[in-house]
Amino acid sequence: HLPCAWVASVPESSWWPQCQAEGPVGPLELLQGGCVTMRSATEINSLINSRSLCRCCECLRCCGRRDPRPRTVWLGHPEKRDQRYPRNVINNQKYNFFTFLPGVSMAKFKYFFNLYFLLLACSQFVVEMRLGALYTYWVPLGFVLAVTVIREAAEEIRCYMRDKEVNSQIYSKLTARGRLRGSGILVPADMIFLRTSEKNGSCFLRTDQLDGETDWKLRLPVTCTQRLPTASDLLQIRSYVYAEEPNIDIHNFVGTFTREDSDPPVNESLSIENTLWASTVIASGTVVGVVLYTGRELRSVMNTSNPRSKIGLFDLEVNCLTKILFGALVVVSLVMVALQHFAGRWYLQIIRFLLLFSNIIPISLRVNLDMGKIVYSWVIRRDSKIPGTVVRSSTIPEQLGRISYLLTDKTGTLTQNEMVFKRLHLGTVAYGLDSMDEVQSHIFRIMGGRSARLAPAVKGLSLATKVRRTMSSRVHEAVKAIALCHNVTPVYESNGVTDQAEAERHYEDSCRVYQASSPDEVALVQWTESVGLTLVGRDQSSVQLRSPGGHILNFTILQIFPFTYESKRMGIIVRDESTGEITFYMKGADVVMAGIVQYNDWLEEECGNMAREGLRVLVVAKKSLTEEQYQDFEARYVQAKLSVHDRSLKVATVIESLEMEMELLCLTGVEDQLQTDVRPTLETLRNAGIKVWMLTGDKLETATCTAKNAHLVTRTQDIHIFRLVTNRGEAHLELNAFRRKHDCALVISGDSLEVCLKYYEYEFMELACQCPAVVCCRCAPTQKAQIVRLLQERTGKLTCAVGDGGNDVSMIQEADCGVGVEGKEGKQASLAADFSITQFKHLGRLLMVHGRNSYKRSAALSQFVIHRSLCISTMQAVFSSVFYFASVPLYQGFLIIGYSTIYTMFPVFSLVLDKDVKSEVAMLYPELYKDLLKGRPLSYKTFLIWVLISIYQGSIIMYGALLLFESEFVHIVAISFTSLILTELLMVALTIQTWHWLMIVAELLSLSCYIASLVFLHEFIDVYFIATLSFLWKVTVITLVSCLPLYVLKYLRRRFSPPSYSKLTS
C-alpha cells in the first residue's frame, strides 16, 4: 500500500448496495458514506466493463467525449454527482486490438511502392495479365508484410507492458479507521488537498514531472477538513467542492469548498495552493484528497499531445525516388508499345510491359531497409559506451544522422538537480570551496568556546554600527543570516537505530533531512551546517539553530515574506529569544537588492564576476529593528492584509517601508551541478552544425546561469534578454531592438514568447533561427511542442527533442526524433520517446556515431538495391527490344526470385555493417556529421549516378551475352544471369569501405549458393554448357567489362578528389 489516500465521487447509488455486498469493484473500493479511494490507476481500463458500472452507464455514455465544464464533487453523497468522468489511464500505444491490423496496413500501403506491388500481385489473378507463377509476386509481398507486422506487434507489446507497469500502482484506501501509510508517492489524478499528517498542517509537493521545476512547492489543505479530528470524519460531513472546467493551466486554479452541515455553513476559496496535480509527488507526510479530474481531463494529459506515428525523412526521400522509378517504368512501357505502333490490343500490352518491367521498383527495398533499421537498433542497444540506451521506435534511426536543431530541457537533462555552495563573498574577501575551513574557524572563534549566554552578547556587540568589527564577526553575521533567512524545514526520520520521536527530541544529525521549496535554499542550509551553524528545528513560529559548541539558539519567527517571481527576493523578521533583539533579514537577486542595501562600490562588479562563472548569486542583507519600529510595522502590515481592494499593492508598500538602507552582509554563489560531460557534448553538437535550444519551465535567472555554466552560450557571445512584453506594440519595439544584435544568444520567457508568436510569428522565428543559441524559460509543456512544430514548419530541418520529465513528453512526441533521459524525474519522458538514454553525454555518440552510420548505411543500401533492380530491368528492356519488342520475360520462376534473395541478398544486406571511419574518429571530428545535413549520401545526383551505372552494366551484360552466345537461347540465359550475379557481388565489394568478416562470409555464401543451385536449374540453364571453358571465358570477359571501368573510376576519384573522411582514415 502506498501512502496517499484519494477520495473521489462514486457511481450512482443504484449499484451501491450490490457493490457493498460483493466487495471491491475493479480499481475503486467503496467506503463509508459513498466515498471511494483510487486503489489501482491501471485497472480503470476495466471500469466500463464491470457489470455494476455497465448497469449505471447507458452504453458508453459515461466515457464519451464532452465539452469540458465546471463540476461539483460531493463528499459522502455520490447520488448528487452531476456528470461522468473519463478513465484514468496512461496510454502511449499507437494501436489497440481492433485497429492494429488496419493501422499497420494503412501505414504500410501509404508508401507508394507498397501499394503498387499490392496492385501488381492482385493483377496476376487476371489470366490475360499473368506473366508467371503467382508465388513470384505474392511470396515477396507477404514476406514484406510479415516483417512489418511482427516488428510493429513487438513494439506495441513492449509499449503495452510499460504502460501497464505505470498504470498498476496501488494506492491506500481511506476507511473509517483512516489507514494511511508511507510517503513519496506519485499523485494519480488531479485533486483538492483535504488533510495531511504533517504537524505543521502543510506538505511539500515535487512538481518536476509536471513543470520541470525542482523547487518543492508548499501545499495547504482545506482549513475546514484539516481541523476534523480524524480522516474518517471526511466521510461523515455534508460538503462539496466546486471546480472550474478542465484546462491546461498548471499554475492557476479557481474553486470553492462548501460545508453545509455546519452552523453557519463554511465557504472557503480554493486556489493553486490547495491542489495536487497528477504526475506530481508527495514529498512529505501523507495526504487525503478529493479527485476532481481524471484521464484526458488531467492537467498533465491536456499539456501532452497524442502520440503519432513518425515517418522518417529518409523514408520519404526513398518514397520519392520510387515515384520517379514508377515514372520511368510507365515511360519505358509506353515506348515499347509505341515502337509496336500500338498494334492490336495495345492497352493490354501496356499492362504486360508494366508487369514485365516491375523490377524497376524493387519490392525488396522496403524489406532491406526495415531489417536494416532492426540491425541499427540492435547495435545501439549493444553499444557498451552508452549503456542502458533503449530504442523504442526502430523506424527512424536514420533521423539521428541529420539533426539540425536540438531542443533540450534543463532540469534533470543538462543538470543533476543537485545544488552545491561554491562561494561566499564579503566584499573585501571571498571564500571558495578550498577555503571553507577558514569560515569554519571564524564561526568556532565566535561561538564555539563560549556559553549560550555569552554568544548572544558577542552578537549584540557585533551589531553596533559604530564599533569596528573583526573579520570573524562579519563572517559570523553572514553565516547566521544565511542560516535564518529561508523556508527550509528539518525533518527527522527513523534510521533503524533511533526512532523518529527520539531523533526529533535530540536533534540527531544522522536522521535529519531538509525540505524546502527551492534546492538553492537546501544547499545554503547544508553549507551553514558544514561550517558549524546547524538548523535543527523549525515550525510555523520558531527556528532553532545549534552552535558549534552544541548550544541551541532559539529564534521566534515574527513575519515571513516568501519569494515570488515578481519580487525576486524573500525576507524574514525574527526575534532572538536570549536577547530580545529583532532583526529583519533579506536575500534576493542582485537586480532588486542593489536598490535596497546601503551604497557600496563592489556589489555590481562582484555579482557580474560570479555570474560569469555560472553561479546563481544571492545578495544577503539585514536591518535591526527596535520593538517600537516593529510594532508600528506590524500594525500597518495587518491593516494592509485586511484590505479588500488592492491588497497586494498595499502589502507590498508596507514591506517596502522596511526595505531601505539595509546593511549588505554577503553574496552567496550556488552552482546547479551539470551532468557529466555536458560541456564537451554541447561543444561537439555545435561543431557538428547542430543549433541547441534550451526550453525550460524554470526561472529566467536560473536558465541563464545554466546556459552559461554548460557553455551553451560561449564566453565570447553576448546574451540578449528579451524583456517582458504584454502587447503588440511592446513586442514590435523589442523585436526591433533584438534585430540590431548580431551573433547574440537569445533568452526569452514563455509569456513574451506567446505574445511574439501571436503577432509576429514569422519575424520572431526568422530572428531566432539566426541565433547561435536560444533559451526559453517559463515554458509550458504545450509551448515546448509549439516551438518544435514552428521550427519544423519554418526551416524544414529535422529536430531532436531531449527531456526527462512528464512536462517534456509533448515536445518529445512532436519532434522528428525524441530522446528521453531516465533520471530523477521518473520514466514518463523515456517511455514516450523514440530513444531512451541514461545520461545526456550519451547523446553525442548516439548522433555522431550511430546516427551518422545509420543514415550512410541506409543510403548505400537503398541505392544498391535500386541498382540491383535497374540492372535486371535494363537487361529485360534490351532483350525485348532485340526480339521485336515482345512482352516475354527474360528470366522466369525461381531465377527472378533467387536473384533478389539467396543469390544477392546477403552481400547487399551486409552493407548495414559498413562504415567509413571508426567511431573514435567520428567523435573526434564532429564536422563529419555536418556533411550529412545537406542529404548528400542520398540525393538526386547520387541516384542519377547509380541509374547510369545500372544502365551501363545491364546493357553490357545483355549485349555481351547476345554477341557471345552460340546457338541456343538457353545459353543467353546462362551467360547473362551468371555475369549478372558476379557483377552484383563485385559491385558490393566495390561499395564497401571497411570490411567486416560477415561481409566476406556473405559474399562466399551467396556465390556457393548459386554454384550449388545450378544443378537444380536445368529447366532454365544448360548444366553441361556451364561446365565448358567457353562459358567461363565469356562470363569473365563480360563481368570485367561491366565492372573494371568502375573500379578505375573509384581509384581515380580517391586519388585526385578524396572525400573528407578518407583524409582522416589515412
TrEMBL record:
Keyword Ribonucleoprotein included in the entry's annotation: no
Gene Ontology MF terms in the entry: ATP binding; ATP hydrolysis activity; ATPase-coupled intramembrane lipid transporter activity; magnesium ion binding
Record's catalysed reaction(s): ATP + H2O + phospholipidSide 1 = ADP + phosphate + phospholipidSide 2
InterPro entries cross-referenced by the UniProt entry: ATPase_P-typ_cyto_dom_N, ATPase_P-typ_P_site, ATPase_P-typ_TM_dom_sf, ATPase_P-typ_transduc_dom_A_sf, HAD-like_sf, HAD_sf, P-type_ATPase_IV, P-type_ATPase_N
Active site: residue positions: D409
Cofactor: Mg(2+)
Keywords: ATP-binding, Golgi apparatus, Lipid transport, Magnesium, Membrane, Metal-binding, Nucleotide-binding, Translocase, Transmembrane, Transmembrane helix, Transport
One Pfam family recorded for the sequence: Hydrolase
Ranges where the P-type ATPase N-terminal domain occurs: 78-137
Its membrane topology: Multi-pass membrane protein
Localization in the cell: Golgi apparatus, trans-Golgi network membrane; Membrane
Every P-type ATPase C-terminal domain range: 831-1058
One Gene Ontology term from the biological process aspect of the record: retrograde vesicle-mediated transport, Golgi to endoplasmic reticulum
Keyword presence, Transmembrane helix: yes
EC number(s) recorded for this UniProt protein: 7.6.2.1
Protein name, as recorded: Phospholipid-transporting ATPase
Species this protein is from: Cyanoderma ruficeps
Lineage start: Eukaryota, Metazoa, Chordata, Craniata, Vertebrata
